[in-house]
DNA sequence: AACGATCTCAACCGCAACGAT
DNA sequence: AATCGTTGCGGTTGAGATCGT
């Protein structure tokens, strides 16, 4: 509020970058290194906002950027990481060398989101999602629309986790059949994203749910959450899009925040243990310290 | 070939976090 | 402690490309 804009829009060029501009920026950054982006345009002779220069450099001109389509490994990594940290694109990008947060965000919004939505629509949640969507469209109440968005995002997350769960289960089955130590380790690796579901269905999850119900938190999350819990999915699991929304979060209150944090603390602890136990190169999975950080980021109600 | 619909992705915008003063 | 300036992040937009009819 009342903040001065990052640049004076008068006379500052916007839109696509010309090759000459790119060259000026690359030459300057290679000579002086990145830093002081506000002064950079003036010093480099660019008629651009510093912010625009920084974005152009980090998302496009940086020499270590990997261009081209995403590989299967990268695809899977994004799915895994998004299931854990949600829309923390910079965190996901940090685990994928050569990829930018913007690139991953675009990839998610265009390819993965669509794919997961289609898969979700095949499931039983389709009717509920459609009902919510139509109700929100029909309603002129912003709160109703907001709740529908929140619920849709949650359903997407559940579908995603279900997908990961089923694929992990398949891998575990085949690995067991093969009964080799290396394939078992690989199966554990594959099963890692399923940790939330396993935790949720474990005794820890059971006591967690009882505790949540006792405090009325489950009721506050609505009937859809209850049905999701019955289906074995973490109803309170923060979803990517909705989880970022503080206004929706505020309706749930601090009890839900404690629930989230408690459950996530347990999840992160187990993930960290798993990570340590396997003792293998785990490029598709964040290190223990990142997981710890993820648990903090999962506190949407603070 | 022409046109509209849909998709992709580079770039922009606003906000929050952080460090300096 | 308060204020200001800078940077980083996530959400959104829109122009160009591609696809379908």
TrEMBL record:
Molecular function terms from GO: DNA-binding transcription factor activity; transcription cis-regulatory region binding
UniProt record, GO biological process: regulation of lignin biosynthetic process
Protein name, entry field: Uncharacterized protein
Pfam families: Myb_DNA-binding
Occurrences of domain Myb-like (ranges): 9-61, 62-112
Places the protein is found: Nucleus
Gene3D superfamilies: Homeodomain-like
PROSITE patterns: HTH_MYB, MYB_LIKE
One GO cellular component, as annotated: nucleus
Keyword field: DNA-binding, Nucleus, Repeat, Transcription, Transcription regulation
InterPro entries for the chain: Homeodomain-like_sf, Myb_dom, Myb_TF_plants, SANT/Myb
UniProt domain HTH myb-type: residue ranges: 9-61, 62-116
């Amino acid at each position: 509020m009342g903040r001065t804009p990052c640049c004076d829009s008068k006379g500052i060029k916007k839109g696509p970058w010309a090759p000459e501009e790119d060259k000026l920026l690359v030459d300057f950054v290679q000579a002086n290194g990145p830093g002081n982006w506000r002064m950079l345009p003036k010093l480099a002779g660019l008629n651009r906002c510093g912010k625009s220069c920084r974005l152009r450099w980090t998302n496009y001109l940086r020499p270590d950027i990997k261009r081209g389509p995403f590989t299967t490994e990268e695809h899977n990594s994004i799915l895994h990481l998004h299931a854990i940290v949600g829309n923390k694109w910079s965190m996901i990008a940090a685990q994928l060398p050569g990829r930018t947060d913007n690139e991953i965000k675009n990839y998610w919004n265009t390819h993965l989101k669509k794919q997961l939505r289609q898969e979700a629509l095949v499931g039983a949640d389709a009717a509920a999602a459609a009902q919510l969507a139509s109700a929100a469209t029909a309603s002129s109440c912003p709160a109703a629309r907001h709740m529908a968005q929140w619920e849709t995002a949650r359903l997407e997350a559940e579908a995603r986790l279900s997908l990961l769960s089923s694929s992990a289960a398949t891998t575990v089955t085949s690995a067991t059949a093969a009964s080799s130590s290396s394939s078992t380790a690989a199966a554990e690796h594959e099963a890692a994203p399923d940790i939330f579901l396993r935790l949720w269905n474990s005794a820890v999850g059971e006591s967690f749910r009882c505790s949540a119900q006792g405090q009325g938190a489950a009721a506050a999350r609505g009937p859809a959450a209850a049905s999701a819990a019955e289906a074995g999915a973490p109803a309170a699991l923060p979803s990517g899009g909705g989880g970022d929304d503080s206004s929706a979060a505020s309706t749930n209150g601090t009890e839900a925040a404690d629930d989230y944090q408690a459950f996530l603390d347990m999840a992160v602890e187990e993930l960290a243990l798993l990570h340590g136990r396997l003792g293998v190169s785990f490029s598709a999975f964040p290190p223990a310290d990142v997981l710890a950080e993820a648990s903090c980021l999962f506190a949407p109600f603070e």
